[in-house]
Amino acid sequence: MQTRLQSAKESAVNIAIGYTVAFLSQLLVFPLVGVEATYSQNFKIGFYFTVISFIRSYLIRRFFNKKK
After folding, report:
1. Distance separating alpha carbons of residues 41 and 23, to the nearest angstrom
2. Which residues make Cβ contacts (< 8 Å) with residue 44, sequence separation at least 6?
3. What angle do CA 5, 62, 18 make, to 5 degrees?
4. How many whole angstroms separate alpha carbon 40 and alpha carbon 10?
5. Is 24 in contact with 42 (CB distance < 8 Å)?
6. pLDDT category, 68, cuts 50, 70, 90?
7. Within 10 A of 7 (CB to CB), how many other CB atoms are there?
8. Which long-range contacts does 59-63 make (Cβ < 8 Å, 24+ apart)?
9. In this predicted model, what pLDDT tens digit does every residue of 4-49 receive, in sequence order?
10. Where are the alpha helices (DSSP H) in 1-68?
11. Which pLDDT value is given to residue 62?
């Protein structure tokens, strides 16, 4: 079973990798669908979704660890 700190660390690494992929994807996909965003706006959008993703990932991990 993971401790809360281990769950947080795992979620943070997962999110850091996910953020990088998402940011690069936004730079490629947004123009294809007609969304114009500056690098700063892309960073902010990615940041907000990253925070949400971290919370979601952490809570799911804790839920499943509690069930064991």
Report:
1. 10
2. none
3. 75
4. 27
5. no
6. low
7. 19
8. 61/2, 61/7, 61/10, 61/11, 62/4, 62/7
9. 888 888 878 888 888 888 889 889 999 999 999 998 998 898 888 8
10. 4-32, 39-67
11. 83
